[in-house]
Structures are given as structure tokens and as C-alpha cells.
Amino acid sequence: MAIPAGAPPGAATREVTLDNGLKVLVREEHTAPLASVWCWYRVGSKDERPGLTGVSHWVEHMNFKGTTNIPRDQVKGIIEQFGGSWNGYTWIDQTTYLETATRDALDRMLFIEAERMARCLYDPEDCESERTVIISELQGGENDPDQLLDQELTAAAFKAHPYRHPTIGWLSDLQTMSRDDLYGYYRKYYIPNNATLVIVGDVDTDAALANVERRFGALAAGPEPDRIRTVEPEQSGERRVTIRKEGTAAYLRVGYHAPAASDPRFAPALLLDAVLTGAKGVNLWSSFRGVPPQRTARLYRALVDTGLASFVSGAMLPTEQPFLYTVSATATDGMALASVEAALLEELDRVRAAGITPSELDRAKTQLHAQLVFDADSVTNVAHQLGYFETIGGRQLFDDLPRAIHATTLEDVAAVAGSMLTVSNRTIGWYDPTNA
Amino acid sequence: MSLPSVSHGLAPVRTVLPNGVAVIAKDTRKTAAVTINVALRAGSIGDPPGLDGATFLLSRVIDRGTTTRSADDIAEALESRGVSLSVGVTRHVFSVSCTCLSADFPEVFAVLSDIIRHPRVPETELRTRKGEVATGLRQDEDNPAVRASDALMAQLYGATHPYGRPAKGTLDTVDRLSPNDLLNVHRAGFVPGATSVVIVGAVSTSHAVEVVHAGLGSWHASQGPAIPLPAPERARSRRRHVISMMNKAQADIAYGFTTMTRHDPDYYAFSLLNNVFGQYALGGRLGDSIRERQGMAYYVYSSFDANVAPGPLVVRAGVSGANVDRAIASIDEEIAVLVREGPTAKEHKESTDYLIGSLPRSLETNAGIAHFLQTAEFFGLGMNHDLELPGLLRAVTFDQIKEVATRYLDPGVATVVVAGPYADTQD
Hints:
- The complex is a heterodimer.
- Chain A is α+β, with helices and mostly antiparallel strands.
- Chain A is about 40% helix and about 15% strand.
- In chain A, the strands form 2 sheets. Chain A has a 7-stranded mixed beta sheet, sandwiched between helices. In chain A, strands 8-12-9-11-10 form a 5-stranded mixed beta sheet, sandwiched between helices.
- In chain A, a hairpin with a 5-residue loop joins strand 2 and strand 3 (about 25-30).
- In chain A, helix 9 (about 265-275) crosses helix 15 and helix 10 runs antiparallel to helix 11.
- Chain A is globular.
- The model of chain A is unreliable at about 1-10 (pLDDT under 50).
- By secondary structure, chain B is of the alpha+beta class.
- Residues about 1-5 of chain B have low confidence and may be disordered.
């Protein structure tokens, strides 16, 4: 098995690749009697073609519905009996599954993930039943005006790249997709050489690796999935989208095409966002559950402290390919969206023209450093970060992030602000309620 | 000050300062960080008559200036250290919490102490925060999930009961609140004897207690009169309330009963009942029926909030307008079967194992430990509650679970609220 690959001497994470191509990352953390297992697949909504939007996410749902060796009626409780939780999520670049439970459940967790990789059932009745569950999930999202605006803005910002369609999919595709579509997609992407298995917790690395080999070693590799190669053309002019629907609050969202996680401009862009809206960290599983330290952030002061907006946030997310930097604001009741937009764009123009100050850079670095510490507080979070970054470009990106943040200069931030926050690179979205 | 400790399990140090502030400290070394969780028994039940939302608005403005620090001073002191303060209000508790790097703990706690003891409520800050709260209330008006949940509480407890009143207030009450109103709320509820401070993280327990003493040890204020909290009258017939929101894509159902207090001897039996009914795995029996077998909902679950006064059992589901009646009928059916037959032996064992086995997971992070210890302190469960909990759950019998199901769950007296694209045809 086991071709040791590239882990630096003394690194806390052991990296091994099985003969079938499955990459395995193991990190011992003995702070609690727990273990977290995540299995990551390099497949997300960016891999979907027209007519099959939402298939990655639907496949994720189907992969909780029984396997050859885990009958449907035994799925319930299979990890809960160890006090554990399990879950999964799908986004633009990835689909992932996790279990966190007491350490004695490690073999059970590996068994579940090995089964999921190769032996899910896709019973036709279950596929039909899940169709309505997923449509219910889509409709629940549509109840939220801010989410609806995000979907419309993203679709407008990208005209060619598959990042343009929502991970949940378009309704007509969800209504027409077949069981064979789902199963074919599953078989194409759920292969060991398209996956990364991460184990973090109160485990013995050698024993865990032996167990991984036993559970996964016999699974056959598959042909490398073909990928959509479309590159989004450079945006050549400002775009606008306005939703006019019944509602009680007005929302503004501005999106700029932004650097991917592997781009040297990513760390400067993170720092720029921290100065504008407060530092969030880079853990999609945990960083965005609370309010960031943003009272000293430029856009908070320009929009919220002035009473124009009741809320402002920014999102500079690590992605495999260039995605969007978005800034969102909710207009204070009675405030015109045009006024909120004018104040927001004025601040962005200012930072594009003049950059940030040394004290702002220092504060942003401190905040991001603290967030990286806070986000490493559980085996689940640590395992998430290893797998997430490995899937979108290599875990070295995450390991190097503190150094990249530390090394970022005022000029680096000014350069990314100057190139990213331009008029021709942005899409502006309004949710303008008809009866507010 | 004495520093007694329990010798197994979490084994936090608990002490009470001479002025009545309870301090609970737990030294962990997971990361170079410390979680601070301050709880004051000064929740929204303390809103003065006619001023619903006063405590909530105080929570939005309390960290916007003290007698010696401006809002900018506070923001600078916290954010230059990467700290974001979380201020929250429940019916009974006003909480101030954050996580900071260990090295910053004394300075950060000093700022928190000042915020808690000496808020100033500047007029300009209040005006801005009122705008935020008003916008939030307007957003809630357009949110079927919030509308259904709030309406259920008002139906279950009545519009004047502290659990039934709107905790965030209304556009009218929020608009009328003055700085003095908020400072009066602060004066009445923020007292050392009603305060507990939990410190968890990479700091020695003795240092944690010293820092808390430095910040809050000189604080003196007397407890006001207790707020009357009558037991709600239990429903005698089925109630149904529909909030039509035809512009929405999905309807939210909130379905519930009033139940028991946290100190009820049947609390653990009801916890197991709730887990079997609407929690275990993907939503217990409710999830099996409404999501897994019938494919009607992305989410369906029950929650149980035993409290100082008898709290509710609430079922929540999000379904299409066309499936509302079917989903409600399914909830009725699952209750009827559970009352008639009780849980199966397998369900009883699984839920017991789960609630016990999930304890290490809930106590993994500093914030998780702090939350657990604050709950134990609030309800007087003891600092060894983590050790006692497994035995309390294991002692629950099948008969006890069936008995509490029979006593509290009856579709004939359920209160049902629907908000969303649905027009009631039953009225």
C-alpha cells in the first residue's frame, strides 16, 4: 500500500496514498476521546452539465440511504449508537461526508465511508422520495430573500463557468433527473483516486492506517473523471440584477471576480476583506457561525454605524478556481438601496485608490491569526481544514496560510484592491421589495 | 474564598466571590485560547410591562459605551485582539461571551466587566441600534419559520405571559424605549448575586478566579423582587392558527404542547421521549415518517425546552403548501402511536446510548464545556453533573417514558400554527 508522500519531517499529519489512489491524511489529537473521519470527493456543482444541475448534491443525499452491507433499515443509528454525529455537504468544488464519535467507533466510521464510496444502493423508490425532499430544501432557501439574491447575483456574475449555477440545482433539472443520471454520476466520481480520507483524533496513526488499508485497499480505482475546462472570460463591464418581489426588507449584494485559494493574491484579499468587513477565518464548517470582529471595519462604520444598513458582511472564500468576493448589506428599514449602494461603493473606491493603513493591516493580521487558532478547537474542525484544502489545491495551501498572511505587505493589499474592486469586474444585485 | 473541586470528569473549580458572583473555571489546553461566558439571570422575562423588547435592545447597545469607555474604545480594545463579543438574551438569561487568545484574557475580561457593570446607553448609539432591531423585526415578518414559532409561543402561553410575549418587542415598543428605560432594566437585573462566570481554556483556574475577582469583585448591587412566572394553563382543546404568506415557496409548521420544568422528576424520561420522537438520527420517528418514508420535508424535528416555568415541546417542519395537511396528520399519527405503544426496547436503548455517548462530543470544545457548566449552574445541577447524567438517563424505565407521553402528548389538545403559502380551509 502506502507510498509516503511529501509530508515534511516532524509534521503532525501523516500522508499516505494507497495503491488505488486514495489519499489518506491522519493527525493524532489526544485532547478528547474522540475521532473525526471525513471523506472528501473532488466533485461539486462545478462538474455539472446543463440538465443535471444539482446532481452532486442529490447524489450526496442518496449516499445516506443504505449500501450493500448496510441495509436501509440499519442506517439509522449506525453512528449514533457511539454517541456520534454524521453529516455531509456539497458545494461548488467538493462533496464531503463526516462522522465524529468516540474513538472506539473509528472502524465503524471507516466501514461506513468505504461502503459509501463503492456500494450505495440507489433504490428507485428512494430516489423518488428524495426528489421531493430536495425540492423542499430548494423552496426553503427561496423563502430567504438574501439567499435568492445570492443565487441570482452568482448566475449573473458568471456567464460561462459552471460556478454560475446553484449547488442545489435548478428546479426543472431536479424535476426531471432520473435514477440512472444519479447512479451514473455516483459511479463516475466516487472512486478512491478521486477522494481524500482524513482521520483526526485520539487514534494511533499506524493502527488507523492499517485499518484504512483493510477497509479501502480492495476498492478499484476508476478512470480519472473528465472535467469541464471552461474558464470564465474576463468581465468587461458592470452587471446588475434586480429582484422585485413581495418582502419587508431590502438587500444589496456586490460581487467581484476574485483570486482562487492557490493564487498568491488570496492572502492579501483575505486581509482586504478583514479590513472592510472583519476577519472570518477560512473554515466553512465553523468560521461563519458567529459575527466577526467588525466594529472597527471600514464598511461597518460606513454603513451600519451611520444607520444606512442594519447588517454588512463580506465573504472571501477559498475555492479551487477564481470565484467571487461578495459584500452584502441589509438596508435599515426606511433607507433607500441606492443610498446604501452609494456609500458602499464609495468605500470600495477609496480602498481601491488608496489602499489600507499600516494599523489596519496589523489589526487584520492579528484578527486572522486569532481566528485560525479559534478554528482549530475540535477534531472535527481540524479534519475539515485538512480535507477541504487538500481537495481544492493541496493542504499545503492551508499550512502556508499563516506565513502568507504574515508576509503580506501594504502594497500587496493595495494591488489586489486595485485589480479586483474595479467597476468592470463587479456585479451589483438588489432585492427591492415591492411592498416594503 | 475557598476553591473546592470535584475529582473526576470535568472537575471544574467553583467558587463564589463575597459579593455573590459565582465563578466556575476549567483549565484545558486544547488551543492557546480562553472562552469567557458570563450569564446574568436577567433575561427578557424582566421586560417592564408595556416595554417588550427592552432587554433585547439593551443587549444590542450594552457594549456601545460605558461610563469610562466610548463605543470606539471598546471596539478597539476587543477587535485589536481578534475578539468578537457575543451578547445574547433568552427568556431567563442575558449572556456575554467571547473567545480570546490566552495572553489577552485579563485585558479582555476587564473590558467585559466594565460593559456589564457600567453601561451608558448613549442616545446616538441607541438610535442606530433601534434601526437595526426594527429592520430585524421587519425581516422576521417576512420569515415563515419565525412567524410560526413566535405565534406558537403566544398561543401556548398567552400574549401576556413572559414566555408568550415577543422577546424582541414590537416596532412600537422598541421605538418608545429610552436610555433610561434600558438603564432601569440593567439596574433591576444586573446584580452580582444573579451572575455566574465560566472560564474555560488555557489558563490556570486560580488565575481565572483572580481575574474575575479583579473585574467583578468590587461590584455591589441588590437583587430586586422576583418576577412572577405563573405556570401556563394547559390547552383543553386543539387550536389551529394559520398565517397566510402566499409569496413564499414553502410553509413552516410549528406544533406543540406545554410540558414541565427542568426540575421535574420526569425530565430525563421526557428527554428520552423527545429523542425517540423527533431527534434521534434524522429526526427520530418524525424524520422516519415525514422525511424518509414520505419525502415531504427537508427538515422535521422536535425540541424540548424544560425551563424555570413549564417549557414547550415543539415540532417543526418545512413543507410545501400542498403537503401541510398531510404533514400535520402524520405528526398526529406518530404521537398517537407513541402514546399508545411507547418506544420500542431498541429505541429506548439507542436513545439512551446516544444521549450518554454524545456527552464527550458536546464537551470537546471550550465553548461546549462553558455552555454545559453554565446550564448546570443555572439549574443548580451541580458541578459533577457530567458524571451523574449517564446514571440519571440509564435509570429511566420504559414505563416512565410511556407515562410522560400519555400525560403530555395528545393530538386532541395540540396547538398548531402554519405560516406560508397555505390558506386554511378548516375554519
